[in-house]
Amino acid sequence: MRGGWVLLCTALAVPILACGGDDESPEARIRARLAEVELLAEAGDVAGVKQFLSEDYADAAGNDRRALATWLTLQRMQHRTLHVWSRVRSLEIEAEGRAAVVLAAGMAASPIAGAADLARMRADVYEIELDLREEGGDWRVLSARWSPTSPRDLL
Predict the structure, then answer these.
(1) pTM
(2) Which CATH code for domain 3-154?
(3) What percent of the chain has pLDDT over 70?
(4) Angle of helix 3-10 relative to helix 26-42, nearest 10 degrees?
C-alpha cells in the first residue's frame, strides 16, 4: 500500500483543479488535475486529494475510496514532509469520459530538483496506472495499480 501516497501525490503533483474552459482538451484537463493532486499531496491536504477519487474507486489491493484516504492520513502523520517528482509516460482517451494514464512518480522527504536527485536520495519510485472517469466535469480516479520501478523511468 506504500505506493498509494505516491498515487495520489501524482494522480495519484501530477494531481481537483477546475477543469477550465470548454475549449481545453481532455488531455490538458487531465494533466492539470494530476498537477493539482501532486501539489495537494505535497501540502499534506489528504481531504483535497480524496476529492480526486471517484466515489466508486476500487484498486487491485482491495481498497475503496475510504480505505485509501484513511491509509493516506496515517502515512501523512508518519511522514511530515513529502516531495514528488513525476512524469506522465502515456495518456490515452479511451472513450467519451474515460481515460488511462501511466506515470512514473518518485517521492522523498527532501526536495527533488530533478529525476537525477532520486538516484542519490532514498526515494521511492513507482509506476502508476490510473483509470480515470469524467464525473460532473471533473476527472476522477476510478482505479489504480502501482508497482516499484527504477528512477530511470522518470527520465
Answers:
(1) 0.81
(2) 3.10.450.50
(3) 81
(4) 130
